[in-house]
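Teaching note: in complex prediction, the entire set of molecules is handled at once rather than each chain in isolation. The prompt given to students was simply: 'Predict the structure of this complex.' The entities are:
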Amino acid sequence: MYQNKKAGTIGIIITIIILILIVIFSNGESNTAFFENAASNLVMPIQNGLTYLKNKISGNNTFFTDINNLQQENEELKQKNSELEQSLRELENIRTENETLKEYLNLTEKYGEYNTIPGYVINKDISNYSKTIVINLGSNDGVAENMTVIADQGLVGYVISVTDTTAKVQTIVDTASSVSCIMSSNDESIVCKGTMDDSSTLKAMYIPTDSNIAQGESIETSGLGGIYPKGIHVGTVTKVTNTQNLTDRYATVETAVDFDKLNTVLVITNK
Amino acid sequence: MKKLVINLFLILTIFIIYFLQSNFFNWFNIAGVMPNVFIIFVLFIGLFTNKTVGTAYGVVIGLILDLLFSQKIGIQAVTLGLVGFLAAIFDKNFSKDSRMTIMLMVLGSTVIVEVLNYLLAYMFININVEIVNFVKILAIEVIYNMILTIIIYPLIQKFGYDIENEYKGNKILTRYF
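The expected output is the structure of the full assembly:
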């Protein structure tokens, strides 16, 4: 109220700019390409002009034309190389797509015995510390508490409360969630708990001391505990952390479902 | 009559903040962490009205958030209500004319709300405790809230004193000394 008004406005504008920059740079490099392009566009014409002038002045044009040719050839080769890499990547993509499609087929076979209702995610938690979602199915659609919610990739969570038209779902990545799981290769049981770290990782604890858990191991629900049915895919082990004590080692499990992009879900109405 | 207009305006603001929080800040976040504008809003109401109104707004907003997302009803109602109550105490002891004091109040109330929320959640929902991650997220959230306070401070001042005149009337003397 008693401050200089102009200085205040400038301060606010600077703060907004700083905030936008923090947000951009804290969320990975996806947005920086634009700035890099802008910077190079700003500098390159001048750079080219200066190089041309320098070449003219020093007089030995042939040498530089040779270099230019070589550069051109080099660029062509590089382009070819990148094209080849591109096609390789495409092939790789097609291969993984093929694998996931095959996986889907298996999943539908596996989940065929359950009656499911499809629904949409209509709201996500606005708190930083819990990860519940709200879906557009309620008691009118036959959804009740403690029903399991899945997506086509795997387990999502379970219904904690219902209204007539909506249901609150506690996801498996919520910090209050613990899922009893088994490793699909050797059927040994572990418990997957949600973490605050990330929206797609679980911490697998209580690993039996004599079991050898490895990266890439597929994890599914065990059916113990009474909420989740047996045999629903949860995720894959990405990292095993050994501590000094063998009893409290843990594994990081990457969930099959991408919770940031989760849109459609299925509610299992029978068990 | 004017009080009615003010309250309608405040309720409208609740909806605006809700949609900002659930859509805009979901995308415009710092390393995945959203700010909590509701804390700033309840603090602001408590600062410029009185204890009762501040606490009432805190409890109502908290209850709405609990009903929408939470597993146990009442946790956020208690903590946000506490912020409304604390704001009235802040008002008696500190000046509202300085940006710095408001920022420090936001810092204090954000820490109090989130730590209490976490403790209550630990007691009633039985969450898996991760202190390091919690402190990390809390630190970013506090910084984000303080940056937002700097930006909306002129708004707070402009509307704040109008509301204060209506609610406290002639009782405000401190501003004239």
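Point out the following to students. Residues 2-169 of chain B form a domain with the Arp2/3 complex 21 kDa subunit ARPC3 fold (CATH 1.10.1760). Residues 101 and 175 of chain B are 15 Å apart (CA to CA).
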